[in-house]
Amino acid sequence: MNTAINPAASSHWWNSRAMQRFLRHRLALFGLAMLVLLTLACVFGPYFLAYDELFIDLRARFSPPLTGDHYLGTDPLGRDIAARLLMAGRISLLVGFFAMLLSTLIGTVIGIVAGYYGGRVNAVLMRFVDAFLAFPSIFLLLALAAFISPSPVMITVIIALTSWMEIARIVEAEVKSLRERDFVQAGRMLGLSDTHIMFRELLPNAAGPIIVAATLTVARAILLEAYISFLGYGIQPPLPSWGNMLNGAQQYLSSAPWLAIIPGITITIAVTSFNFIGDGLRDALDVRTEPG
Amino acid sequence: MTFSHPTRRKTLQMLGLAGAAGALAPNLLVSAAHAAPPETPTGQIVVGFSQEPTVFNPLMPRIEVDDGVQFSLFDPLFRVDTQGVIQPALAAEVPTVANGGLSEDGLEWRVKLRDDVTWHDGTPFTAEDVKFTLELVVDPNFRSWRTLGHNLVRDITVVSPTEITWRMEETFSPYMSILAETFMVPKHILEPEADRNTAPFNNAPIGTGAFKWGNRIAGDHLELVANTEYYGEGPYIERLIYKYIPDLTVLYTQFKSGDIDIAGVQYISQDNYAEASKLPGKVVNVVPTATIESIYLNMGRPQFQDPAVREALYAALDKQTIIDALYYGLPTPSETYLPKQSYYYNGDLPPHEFNIDRANKLLDDAGWARGSDGVREKDGVRLAFTNSTTAGNHLREQTQQFVQQTFKDIGVEMTISNLPPAVMWGEYWTMSQFDTVLVGITFMSGADPDVSARFHSDSIGAQGGKGANNGQYVNEEVDALLAEGAQTFDPETRKPIYDKIQSIIRDDLPMLPMFQYATVRGHKEGIMGIEPNINTRIDTWHAAAYYWDK
Amino acid sequence: MARYILNRLGQSIILLVIVSIIGFSVLHLTPGGPLSQYALTPGMTQEAMDRISEQMGLNRPLPVQYLDWAWRLLQGDWGTSYRDNQPVLDVIGRHLFATFLLMGSSTVISIAIGTWIGIRGATHRYSVFDYTATVGAMIALSIPTFWFGLVAIYLFSLKLGWFPAGNMYTIGDQSVLNYLHHLIMPSVVLALVNIAVWSRYMRTATLDVINQDFVKTARAKGASERRVLMKHIVGNALLPMITLAGMQLPNLLSGALVTETVFTWPGMGRLFLDSLGYSDYPVVMGLLMFSAILVLIGNLIADLVAAAIDPRIRLA
User: Fold this and answer.
1) Which of B191, B360, C5, C284 has the highest CB neighbour count under 10 A?
2) What is the model's pLDDT at position A286?
3) Under 8 Å CB-to-CB from A215, ≥6 apart: which residues?
4) Between A145 and B406, whose confidence is greater?
């Protein structure tokens, strides 16, 4: 990072105002704590459970929570829900995280290019963004899911392909407003390449909004994964995901409501955590209140 | 070559088979004790369907629920009764050699029609309508759902308003069953239309059936009203309403709460059977259907060339546990593609035995050795394949995961890859792009056992064939037997032919048969006249006879 | 102004063309097709399917099919549904009422409740109420709508039996009361997310207005707190909310789609999923164009209103 012309940089990131503001945001801290706990549970939890997430025991099907060692009960095949929930967490969180990375990448590149070059390039790219936004997201998701065999990687790609537009818009607006600023002009005078200006000079200055939007995209991606897997077009069994654990739960709502309730609450907790963190980051990194 | 009705003895025998399977709804026997149907149509019945009926021109491609509605609006020349016997409907009698309706060689047909039938608009039904219908189904501009059999018909002649004759290009005995699935349409309405595919008739049909078109709220329900001029039995109710409830849980909830009177296709989930059977004021029965659940193998794949592999997979299929645990013991295990209630069912096939050790031994002996990852391999072919079914069918999805685990025990890697219905049953299925599919198929057409479209080597779509042999099964002996079976109308001559075919297919195992479907059907107490018919694919095939016992 | 609108309309048409090309290609390139649903019909053969697909023009090259479709559309012909052989506009029209009923009632609920929560949160900033509302809104935004619908069905239909589990009315009882009875659960479920959005937005908007001079002046003049609130704050903050309403339209539509699925509501969302499931291309394309137009109109209104209230935004 070129600190000379980057006004937002500070000597120690943990001393920065943004960091201090974030630390004062109680909800954000709470969200962060929940998320760390959830991640730790998903990473290490399965090793402490009596059952493997794939172990089928038809005699124990539909055991309610707190039956023997089945702390959260069992599913229609008698598999331990606690084990599945934690293994599913690995998948769902990873899908959410990587979908965020990918969509942020796509959105950022398109946004920067559109914002920096302006004119025709901007018009064409932004019309594309608008066009994608004009689709009901579920249409693109379902249509794309029908294209390929739904492995976790492909589901990640599909979700990313349907959620990059917000970030593109945000970045484009940000870059547009920055592009005539002194440090960019200076860069041009120095003969720096467009690529260098875009990604070395402009990008760090648009980092705040991108980070906030990216956090919220993780939340969104987890919800999308849940929805398409719930419909049966997402992550395929026996690999568990929070969404596909809900698939079929509708059928057993009255006889085994825990099948629906447990994964649903977990999804809500995870998504809420990301939204809390996003909110905290928004306050902490808000460019409008940041001097300079 | 002769044609005859199944004899009385055979009919009784078929009844016996049905009884042995514990099949027929017990309320049928009870219903005799109840009040007779009312003199004039009274009351209404609401039937819930989980798919929306949308096709009302009965000659166009249709799904189950469309069938259900068309049975109420239209009539065919003949209909197949609950015992699989063909009975006259619009025809005055079923043509046989004895009554002069069929020539000895089965090529000349003479059908006498009823003289007391009118269309819903009052126009009399005549032989001209039959001629028009039989010509329309082969009209190249018309989106006809089936031309099989009809394309053999030549020289249709209207002898009189109540008599029609034609000649067949070749003897084709399944045609009788095909005619029983061909509803007659009115010439005076459709003939003047330039484009029969988009004619207004298709959305406001006029038939001869027991019910007339009322109105339709798309996406919600369809209302039919009694045809008081109906020539046959019934109707006994004023209004028949088909309600579209796209979710089985909601369908069941509405059946429980009494919002719908009959839980129709796809019926009540097996998961809810235990609870449903105890509901007060509701009659709930387990009714077998002709659909056979199986794992279809794509014989074009190298993994499935070796008979030992197919046999081993079959031995490793824990059918009984799947039936007992996942399907609550409702369906009956099957060794063949025909339902037990069919006259042509072969009951002497070797019974399946779940035996992991035997499966392992079969594979070991055939030279399939386990690789480092535990998956067997031979000559560079890994014993790994995908299994697909329609996404969202939770019982099938459970079955897949269970089977996946047992297959793993014999060193076979089965990956689940489920698809949305429109993709699943597109080229993926018709052009044999799958490895294996978990599927329920009705092999019979009506009561006819002809399976040329499913198992004849001419029928492989992926190899340019015309039928639906999606598993790419090829067996010359079966080809010859299928041709032979279509040459004769006599059930007693046909039976051994189809027994033999079933026996060969049981040995070859191009599909691993699991069980014959059993559906959980429910209706309110007091509804009379409901008769399941395994030879139709819908419960409302005979709604004309429904009435309230009040 | 007129020039701006014309310009925007021009852009919108380009946008619609892009939408239609993407939609049409994605739809047609997806494996499977409208005949898949008949593949398992007993007696259905490859021969029959090939013939029907020829008759329906499904085996023509994709660009030809697209141009044919677009040409007809320009002449006002939206095509005919493959599934029930009716004109696409009729099919959509018959599902509009249900969706608008659901979207309308849920918008009324969410604006009413959201506005109240938002203003109260802003005027009682950092109170327990404000804090609870903020946290509540965040959680509401995080709950998967389809799951919330399931839980609502479990609690209020299956356990308590207060509301029906689905559909819009009971056959034979089409009274307003019956509609309302069916409407409550889906519209509240759909409203949940929107209440959160509205209340957050209303809070910010109110805070912006509270600190502006004219409100301070009004207060200094001795106007009662309530009067100032009603007249100035609400009056000024409501305008941006119209902008928000326009921008929210696509989300509302997507939300309605999910809600309709869970509650088997006979609206456009249900129609969309059914049509997609049966590959009823003309209807899916019709719905895509229809919703894209709705979204564009929503955006246009949002921008026009934004320009009207904020002279700094120049329409050029």
Assistant:
1) C284
2) 66
3) A100, A274, A277, A278, A281
4) B406
pLDDT at B108: 95
User: CA gyration radius for chain B?
Assistant: 24
Say if A11 is an interface residue toward chain B (CB within 8 Å): no
Which site among B46, B64, B146 would you substitute to test the C interface, given the most C Cβ atoms closer than 10 Å to its Cβ? B146
Interface membership of A148 toward B (CB under 8 Å) = no
CB A227 within 8 A of CB C144: yes
ipTM of the complex: 0.84
CA distances from C138 to B361, B378, C199 (A): 59, 57, 11
> What residues of chain A lie within 8 A of the CB of B402, using their CB?
56, 58, 77
Token pair for A95: 């899908």
What's the rounded Cα separation, in Å, for the pair B209 and B191?
20
What value does the CA radius of gyration of chain A take, rounded to a whole number of Å? Answer: 22
Number of domains in chain A: 1
Write out C64-94 in H/E/C secondary structure. HHHHHHHHHHHCCCCCECCCCCCEHHHHHHH
In chain C, the residue whose alpha carbon lies closest to the alpha carbon of B146 is C48
**Alpha-carbon span C199 to C254, nearest angstrom:** 20
Residue, of B297 and B64, whose pLDDT is higher: B297
pLDDT band at C309 (very low <50, low <70, confident <90, very high): low
Q: Which of residues 251-270 of C touch B (CB under 8 A)?
A: 264, 266-267, 270
Identify the pLDDT of residue B15. 36
B175, B253, B291: best to mutate for the C interface, most C CBs within 10 A: B253
Residue A1 covered by a domain: no
- For residue B540, give every residue at least 6 positions away whose Cβ sits within 8 Å of its Cβ, in sequence order, or none: B47, B68, B69, B71, B72, B242, B262, B264
Report residue B168: phi and psi, to 5°: -100, 140
Considering only CB atoms, C157 lies closest to which of B253, B422, B442, namely B253
B247 touches chain C (CB under 8 A): yes
Q: Which pLDDT score, from 0 to 100, does residue A11 have? A: 58
Which of B259, B261, B511 should be substituted to probe chain C, the one whose Cβ sees the most C Cβ atoms within 10 Å? B259
Q: Which domain holds residue A234?
A: 7-289
- Whether A72 is in a domain gets the answer yes
- Give yes or no for a cis peptide into B58 (omega within 30° of 0): no
In chain C, pLDDT over 70 holds for what percent of residues? 93
Residues of chain A with Cβ-Cβ distance to B391 below 8 Å are 231-233
Task: Compute the average pLDDT of residues A3-23.
Answer: 63
Q: Using CB atoms, which residue from A143, A227, A254 is nearest to C27?
A: A143
- Would you say residue B23 has pLDDT above 70? no
In this predicted structure, the answer to whether residue B4 has a pLDDT above a threshold of 70 is no
B402 touching A, CB under 8 A? yes
* Residue A23 lies inside a defined structural domain of this protein: yes
State the pLDDT confidence band at A13, using cuts at 50, 70 and 90.
low
**Cα distances (angstroms) measured from residue A223 to each of A154, A248, B64:** 16, 17, 35
pLDDT given for residue A14 in this prediction:
65
Q: Which residues contact B84 (CB under 8 A, 6 or more apart)?
A: B6, B14, B341, B342, B343, B447, B534, B535
Taking the CA of residue C149 and the nearest CA in chain A, the distance in Å comes to 10
Distance from C-alpha of A83 to C-alpha of A93, rounded to nearest angstrom:
15
The answer for residues whose C-beta is within 8 angstroms of residue A110's C-beta and 6 or more apart is: A125, A128, A129, A164, A168, A171, A172
Residue C245 is which amino acid? A
Could you tell me if residue A40 is inside a domain? yes
Q: So what's the pLDDT on residue C299?
A: 78
The one-letter amino acid at A3: T
CA distance B327 to A69: 26
Helix axis angle for C281-309 and C2-29, nearest 10°, is: 150
Task: Return phi, psi of residue B328, to 5°.
Answer: 55, 30
